[in-house]
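Model the whole thing, not chain by chain.
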Amino acid sequence: MQETNTVKILRFHPEKCIGCLSCEKACSKVHFKTEEGGENSAIHIIKKNETFEMNVCDQRGLCLDMCPVGALARNKKGIVILDVKRCIGCQACVAFCPINAMRKSSKRIEPFKCISCGACVRACPEGALELVETPIKDIRKVVYHKQGA
Amino acid sequence: MVEGQIPIQEYQTGNTKHTWNIEKLLSAHKKLSEHSYTKGIVEKGYANRTLYVNLTTGEIKEKNVSEDMKHLFTGGRGFGLKLLWDSIKPTTRWNSEENELIITTGPLCGITQYPGSGKSLCLTVSPSTNIICDSNVGGFFGPYLKFAGFDALEIQGKAKKDVVIVIDGETGTVSIESAPLEETNSHLLSEQLTHIYASEDSDVSRQKVSIVSAGTGAEHSYWGCMNFSFYDIRRKVPRLKQAGRGGLGTVLRDKHVKAIVVKVETIDGVSNHPVDPDTLAMVGTKIHREIRDLDRFQCNMRSVGTAHLAEIMDAYDLLPTENYRFGSFPKAPRIYSPEFYKLFTKIIPDGCWHGCTMACAKTVDGYTVMTGPYKGQKVTVDGPEYETVGCGSNMSLWDPLWILEFNFYCDTYGIDTISAGTAIAYYMEMYEYGILNKERCDGLELCFGNGEAVLELLHRIAKGDTGEFIQTAAKGIRRVKDWLKKKNWGEPYLIEECGMESKGLEYSEYVTKESLAMQGGYGLTLKGPQHDEAWLIFMDMVNNQIPTFQDKAEALHYFPMWRTWFGLNGLCKLPWNDIEPENNAETDEPAKVPEHVQNYVDLFTAVTGVKVDKNELINQSERCYNWQRATNVWLGRGTRKDDWIPYRSMGPVTPLEYGSRMQRYDDQLVEKLGLKKEEVEKMSIEERIKELYRYRQDQYQKLADAVYYRRGWTPNGIPTPQKMKSLGFTDKKMLSMLQKKIDEDEKNGLNKWCGTYRGKEKPPSDIPRYWEKW
């Protein structure tokens, strides 16, 4: 399916962020047609001391090898996409994501994640977010499999 | 292959590919009977009906599940026990017309959020034991059976020729079809049927089909297992999990069932329609993360499955070697889990049900078969699990490839690796003593370590060889003991005490000589010596947490009840204590893993909406546990004499064994029996063995006394009507049957304690017929 060696991932410029959460609202609109943000948003902006941090999927794809039904795959643009129709809601990808970027909303059993659609980038009034083309080999991660600590 | 992120469609195993003429196979099918049903939805974990199929008459019908049945029997194995009680007679044997083969699910079966939630529970009157045997198994069949509309499947009668039973949850039909052309052996048959019954030629469709089958070995032995398939979209083969114990596959083939097929229309994360999916997701995510963070420091289930136990058992003198004579062996490191890790396929998800992140179902892909009808082909071998590795050490096979070969053929022939491995190990010991020899073994040189002879035995069994030894051997240790004694080929003591069976069922792979509680865990059981009721060796022997008879009895009450609970709900036991929370050791009762017990309380309520606490979970089990014991009594067993275990499981039978652990046994003669050191030194090895034998046999009887009392039974091991009533049972047939048996025991003087109590020692109760005071 994948036809590219690069993938667009989000880059965050905390110095520009004002914490308005427009990105989260835009994201939850994409996923759940609501502007609630928060648990319904794939991007999370977290206030930390005087600055902000972003938590979002970086398309590393560790979850691809966790899905028992093949509901997770990279699309032509290299983006890791969850096929909700195939997903059986087991939460394996949610729990095994090392950066907790696969999300579960109480709106449905199937999780959701950042699809690099750019809605948050467009929604940000300060230009604190951008999509950056990144080589997949630089971010690719494989689920831990070795025997022993 | 250790490279991750391979797109599913590009994944390769290197297996030999087959092409099947599906149309030809299907055109030979003839529908013998058909039943249409209204597709329902599963509500709060229950489909609320069961499916009955009679192969003799062709009758197919639905039975309602009442609220009362759910309350008393919970589901899964409990439903199976109730359905059997209503259908069989005290005279029913494994091959009787009315014997049933039952596959059940359970209310939590099929949830995807918590690891180990896809178990089927299978029951029948066993050829090995003549009582009910229950066996749990992974694979997709159980969840799919429920999502197709049924909490249980009940098969009675016998077909005249080979049939497949097809439960089509897509169209809402159940049919019995003749199936003359398909293969019988499971790795091929399940592949053919998966392709035949998948709605579309796609992996997604094939994943919605599950097949139950047993091969030609199940037809010709009492060791028949049932293979439950789960189609692997990466490996593109239906993989197999086994309902191994007690000859269920033998009964399946005796009924001329070639396979049972189930197909679902859809499946999602809430197919059970739980009342509270958020809690399921929350509790599930919590344990998935424990597995993610801790498994590699605890059991390594994700990398090597249960095979990790080989090195632990060897270290603690518990790995059965040369028919349980020894608990460790210098060659054992050759079959430690790192050797299998080298062979296992890595990285991809290996749960036998969706969402199981414990993922212990390991495979060796592209394995080149070394012997028999599939020699030279490349196949996927499911396993080996610890038990199969233990069979290897028991038969003194120290080459991982021979263990894989044994594993592959046992599976595809539909033979239980445990029963076969334990039995062959016994035959090998008899061979060593000259009680058996090449001539008596129909030309097989069945000495320890001869992998080729082991496989040749399996091939000949599967072919239906009529040799006297092959025929007897395939019926298991109990029948071979009787045969050897009848032939007068050896000392009855050796023949009887070396063979590791109880109730007619072969032991699973742990040495129990130094743990009295574990001897009880194997002997004081419902179906026979299987470690699924209790595994107390570490609590008892290593950590000394249950020193008194009363402590041991409490453990032999709690743990069998707790472990029974998984079977009532369609769950796997492994995620309970093969992963533990980081702070588990600091809790009040680490052996119970309290946090995980609470997880199960939460899961049960989240699915069914019924508010429970941890005590109620034990009550649910106690009802079914006692019901099963009572059914054993009804079938003419289920008494103290049926809980007999061979001395090989209690102590050293032979001078060789005594000598191998001389210091240990000599010390015990001094410390536990009160003999003087000088006295012991003057005794011959045979005399020392005898002294220890007397002592340990008495210990076992005292344990049985304490356990029966704790469980609410008579001294002869009969569940009392008083106990049954306190559990909520009012079935008059059951209560009067038990009373009658107790009265008979009274007449025959069997209502008495069997331990020898001296000095300050006291039996569990001084009151005659104490249960009448309850």
